[in-house]
Specification:
195 residues, 3-stranded antiparallel β-sheet, alpha+beta, single chain
């Protein structure tokens, strides 16, 4: 009798753990139909060169006391290649693998495998980039983790962290973001470097 009860409890625990694992391995709906983006060092370097052009514009604006307009167009491959390098440098409790950035008309979809304290999940974040009062704003539309839902509290926390990270004023960068447009396969960012 005790052996049967113990076996039943063990089966329930293992079954629950197995179900949680299987649910965590499901692909989020937002990731369905997305083709993998190939990463390359060349695309990461191209991304960095575009960012360097912003630094040149800032220096030129300071030197000439004249605002400098800059227009940047990032491809999925450039964004994904840079994200892959950045993910390798993450520390802390979250480990990201194979980040992919897909720009769609009006939104950006970030997918990645993440491991938090040894528990693996497939993650998809759908965000809508906009420029508001000279600042970048990335609104998180939804966060999906395969079969496991995330609480709204986590979504709100991510929204706040992303807004803080992307705010040029917070970073001490003299920029006004005048336009962000998510196009199919590319992200257009127009900004003004102020003196």
């Amino acid at each position: 009798m005790i052996r049967g009860l113990f076996t039943l409890v063990l089966l329930l625990v293992l079954g629950g753990a197995g179900l949680a694992y299987l649910m965590s391995q499901q692909q989020p709906e937002a990731a369905s139909g997305l083709r993998p983006v190939r990463t390359s060092v060349k695309d990461a370097v191209t991304f960095d060169e575009k960012i360097a052009s912003v630094e040149v514009a800032i220096e030129t604006a300071k030197r000439t006391s004249t605002a400098q307009r800059v227009s940047l167009l990032f491809t999925d491959a450039e964004l994904t290649s840079r994200a892959a390098l950045a993910a390798d440098q993450l520390t802390g409790g979250i480990v990201a693998t194979d980040p992919q950035i897909h720009v769609r008309a009006g939104s950006v979809v970030l997918t990645a495998g993440v491991s938090f304290q040894g528990f693996p999940l497939n993650l998809a974040v759908v965000a809508i980039p906009v420029a508001v009062d000279g600042r970048t704003s990335i609104g998180i539309q939804e966060i999906q983790t395969g079969g496991l839902p995330l609480p709204d509290l986590i979504k709100k926390e991510l929204d706040a962290q992303i807004a803080k990270i992307l705010d040029p004023a917070t970073l001490g960068i003299p920029l006004d973001v005048t336009r962000i447009e998510a196009r199919e396969g590319s992200l257009l960012v127009e900004l003004v470097a102020n003196p």
